[in-house]
Structure formats: C-alpha cells, structure tokens
Write a structure and sequence with these properties.
This protein has 122 residues and is an all-alpha fold. It is built from three helices and no strands. The radius of gyration is 27 Å and the shape is rod-shaped. The mean pLDDT is 85.
C-alpha cells in the first residue's frame, strides 16, 4: 500500500509539472494572439491614415469621384483589419488555453489507478 501511495504521489507531481508546462506554453500562444490583435490595430490605423489619402487621390485622378474613391479605400482597409482581428481573437479562445494533454493524461492515470485498485481487491 505504501508503494502505491509513493507511486501515486510521484504521478500527481508529474501531472502537475506537465500541467504547469502546458499552461505556460498556452499562455505564450495567447500572448502572441494579443500581439496579433495589437498589430492589427496599429496596422489598420497607420494604413488608413497614410495609404488611404494616397489611394483616394489616385482613384480620383483616374476619374472616380472623390467620395466614391474614399468609400472604396475605406472598405478595403476595413476588410483587412477585420481579417486580422478575426485571426487574433480565434487564436485567443479560452479552449486553446486549457491544458488538454494534461487533462487527457490525468483521466488515463485515474482509470489506471482504479483498475489497479480493483485488481487488488479481487
């Protein structure tokens, strides 16, 4: 019985270490996703300010009315910003932060311990 408790204690320690490592890895992914969102915001603002004026001027020079030129450029940059924001928020979902490998291992280990205890009772 003492050997089983020692093994169980070691197993729990290993699972806690695995969970800690997995959460750390997932938090790094979350930080990257937040960086992607911040990058999207900065890119959207900078691009809209600098390039929109140039594109509106170019479209106006090409014969399109200034209002329509501005609308075309605004929609194009808005679509790009939305795509980057969607990617960043998708990568930041709470399910991606859960230590899924650890949960799977703990479930497997629990079943193994149950089977071992059941075998000893017989």
């Amino acid at each position: 019985m003492n050997d089983a408790m020692t093994q169980m204690s070691g197993l729990v320690r290993k699972e806690v270490d695995l969970a800690r490592a997995e959460v750390t890895e997932n938090l790094k992914s979350a930080a990257a996703a937040i960086g992607m969102i911040v990058g999207a915001a900065i890119l959207a603002l900078t691009s809209l300010n600098v390039l929109s004026a140039a594109l509106v001027a170019a479209l106006t020079d090409a014969g399109i009315a200034a209002g329509w030129s501005a609308l075309i450029v605004g929609v194009a940059f808005g679509v790009l910003a939305w795509a980057m924001l969607a990617k960043g928020t998708h990568d930041l979902k709470l399910s991606s932060l859960m230590p899924s490998r650890t949960v799977k291992n703990v479930r497997r280990d629990t079943e193994t311990v149950k089977e071992s205890l059941d075998a000893r009772r017989l």
